[in-house]
Amino acid sequence: MILGARLRSLREARRITGLEAGEQIRASHSKISRLEMGRTGFKVRDVDELLTLYGVTDPAERATLLALARQSNTPGWWHIYHDVVPSWLNVYLGMEQAAILIRGYELQFVPGLLQTEGYARAVLRLATGGPDELLERRVELRMARQWILHRERPPHLWVVIDEAALRRPVGGTVELRRQLRHLLEISEFPHVTVQVMPFANGGHVALGGPVTVLRPPGGELPDVVYLEQLTGGVYPDKPAEIEMHRHVMNRLVVEAEPPAASRDHLFRLLRET
């Protein structure tokens, strides 16, 4: 995505159309669009030819961008789970690992990055079914994703969880209690913010379903919106759509209980469960 954004800025600075750029590398205008959005892999030869077309002559800049092209084709650590990672989720995993800020709202379940192993197993059994071997692979992947919260420079994870998700005994009452205790523990991390959207607040702007907004590093790229659906994921990328979902998240964190009050709410739910 970083490389694609840089190539787009170089192309636009030289007033070269996507069609002209595509002709340079024997490709279509749509492929240039996918390259610039980071939605497809890069051939080093194509990047080299585009840099020449865009007038990039500085050896250091060319070397940096060509190195990014090579790096973009290196499979992520989650590649070993290719048997349980569909293409649409592969894109999300890459963005999740690179993000500096992850904001999300969940209506049905506790967010994946905050799930206990038992709770995750129960959720994935409901969502995917299939052989136990594949179920355990999916659980293993979900647990592995959580390492980002424990690394040296973790992202800031800021989630709003609907009270419905916190009362639903996915996996049974014992597992729900374990999950609530885990939320209380991890909400003490300085880079994790958990807010509860209580029933008492009535309706709100995100009743339609879960929303995730990820902020890439570097400050050069717009936020990435991810909408999870029953059989796939959608990435709205028009500026107006991205801004609308950012506005939704901003409204949610204002309307939800503040973090301190949310911890009190979690304690109450734990006592009641």
Describe this structure in words.
There is one protein chain. This protein is of the alpha/beta class and 273 residues long. The protein folds into 2 domains: 2-72, lambda repressor-like DNA-binding domains (434 Repressor (Amino-terminal Domain), Orthogonal Bundle), CATH 1.10.260; 77-272, Endonuclease, Chain A. Helix content is 51%, strand content 12%. It has 12 helices and 6 strands. The protein has helices spanning 2-13, 18-24, 29-36, 44-53, 59-72, 87-98, 117-128, 132-145, 163-167, 173-186, 239-255, 259-272, and strands at residues 101-106, 156-162, 192-197, 211-215, 224-229, 232-234. Strands 3-2-1-4-5-6 form a 6-stranded mixed β-sheet, sandwiched between helices. Strand 4 (211-215) and strand 5 (224-229) form a beta hairpin. It is elongated and about 65 Å long. The mean pLDDT is 90.
Rg estimate, integer Å: 21 Å
Q: How much helix, percentage-wise, in residues?
A: 40-55%
* Order of H and E elements: HHHHHHEHHEHHEEEEHH
Q: Roughly what is the average pLDDT, rounded to an integer?
A: 90
In spatial order, strands of the major sheet run 3-2-1-4-5-6
Q: Low-confidence runs (pLDDT<50, min 5 residues)?
A: none
Task: Give the helix/strand class.
Answer: alpha/beta
What's the oligomerization state? single chain
Biggest sheet: strands, sense, closure? 6 strands, mixed
Structural domains: how many: 2
Number of helices, where a helix is a run of at least 4 consecutive DSSP H or I residues: 12
CATH class of the largest domain: Alpha Beta
Query: Strand content of the residues, in percent?
Result: 5-15%
CATH-level-2 architecture of the largest domain:
2-Layer Sandwich
Assign the CATH topology of the largest domain. Answer: Endonuclease, Chain A
| Bulk shape | elongated
> End-to-end span in angstroms?
44 Å
The count of β-strands is 6
